[in-house]
Amino acid sequence: MVSAPSLKPRPPLPPGPYLVVGLARSGRAAARMLAARGERVRGVDSGSPAGAGRLREAGVEVFLDTDGTARLEGVRTVVKSPGVPREAPVIAAALERGLEVVGEQELAWRALPNRFIAVTGTNGKTTTVELLGHLHRTAGAPVAVAGNVGTPLSELVGAVAEEATIVCECSSYQLEDATAFAPECAVFLNLAPDHLDRHGDLDSYRAAKLRIFAHQGPGDVAVLNGDDPAVAAAETPAGARRLAFCSGPGPGCAVWLSEGTIHADGEPLLELSELGLFGAHNVANAMAAAAAALATGLDRDAVGEGLRTFKGVPHRLETVAEVGGVRFVNDSKATNVASAIVALRAFDGGVHAILGGSEKGEPFAPLVEPVVERCRACYLVGDTAARLARELAPAAGAGVELRRCHDLADAVRAAAAAARPGEVVLLSPACASFDAFESFEHRGERFRELVEELR
To answer: Of 39-48, 124-133, 148-157, 169-178, where does mean pLDDT reach its minimum?
Structure first.
């Protein structure tokens, strides 16, 4: 067994009083955590998110439907929720005044003494994080899973035993605020265009992701995708142990695929036929998780058993039903084009794809080739439906039907009516959900309900 990276002391929390900007899930968790420590906390939000008002019961001053700039007086540190851009008026005003601005994830990491495995990438973060949690549980090792989706990191402060490893999903929004964040093991899965409406261009998006490695030091572990040029070219800090996962053996590859078998450190670990997930993208996720787990000291046999028994996460290539011989698959978490491409290519053909949602500014042209290869029809919904129809026109020219639908319910009914036994109705939107739903989870649950109505 490899010895786990040693823990390092955390920087102290920045001084209060605090202003928490953005009172969705992460912001509320940060405000409650600070209030529980006896700090003076104000919370502001430009809207009125559900549950924000209840922070008053925890002793937090709450101000809703305001940009928050009037509440900076007397504040020493501003805590920024990941959904709040740095260009927001209150953040710009705080920086002009010389106040410290810290992200929720950075704040919580400083307050937690635990060993961290942090995972970023455009796609596969949630699956890999949940898989790492499963590997730890299979090995009998204490673990807590948190981050970008699910449990905010701040909720773990004071609630998790110090010996537990925290496996943390890190979005570019969270990492752009990292000022000292230094996980003992950091994993970078892949890079594809996403969130360009926030970051402006791919280089800026990549730079945010790379901050996962920025403050690592000697003895820490950096796990990278050796097959993704934009990831493999990343510089990692001197002294950090650099490990790659790869589609074949090569220099620096700690985990690789060869002749249908995942190898680790030169020895077979698992036959692909035994892997509990399907799709080439999940082979890469499994190799990344294995590399991180083994490098941080988990037992090799437990890692192999965990890879066999993990069955995936909700809303990610999740089969929800088979009706009349047609398989219905919920991939609502595919909120960008690269993720939708992976989903389409997970099937041999006969796909009826439901695409569309809210606008992120990402081009849809890369979808044309996999749509032509795998789809019989595409059902276009949401704010992006018209642009999808234009940019997928070459697929229509190749014989794939493109049908504009009023909403998700209309699309599910139309796809179900057209699909033949042995084919697949796939919700893999390639877009965010905010035109019609609160979240991708809400969209996926609605898809499940609509499929259930078909029975």
So the answer is: 148-157
125 is catalytic: yes
Is residue 148 part of the annotated active site? The answer reads yes
Active-site residue, from 80, 123, 125, 225 = 125
The terminus-to-terminus CA distance of the chain in angstroms comes to 50
Q: Which of 148, 190, 282, 330 is catalytic?
A: 148
| C-alpha span between 7 and 291 (Å, rounded) | 19
Give 142-206 as a DSSP string: -EEEEESSSS-GGGGTTTS-TTSEEEEE--HHHHTT-SS---SEEEE-------HHHHSSHHHHH
- Residue 301 CA to residue 72 CA, distance in Å, equals 54
Map residue 245 onto helix, strand or coil: strand
CB-facing half-sphere around the CA of 404: CA atoms within 13 A: 10
Count the Cβ atoms, other than its own, within 10 Å of residue 400: 20
Listed residue (293, 290, 253) closest to 269, CA to CA: 290
Query: What average pLDDT is seen over the chain?
Result: 94
In which band, very low, low, confident or very high, does the pLDDT at 295 lie, cut at 50, 70 and 90?
very high
Q: 1-5, 103-107, 438-442 — which is least confidently predicted? A: 1-5
pLDDT of amino acid 198: 67
**CA-closest candidate to residue 257, choices 247, 266, 265, 267:** 247
Sheet bearing 401-404, strands edge to edge? 318-323, 326-330, 424-427, 351-355, 375-380, 401-404
Write out the two tokens for 61: 């001053």
Rounded to 10°, the helix 408-418/440-453 angle is: 50
Which whole number is the average pLDDT over 377-395?
98
Enter the tokens of residue 255. Answer: 């985990």
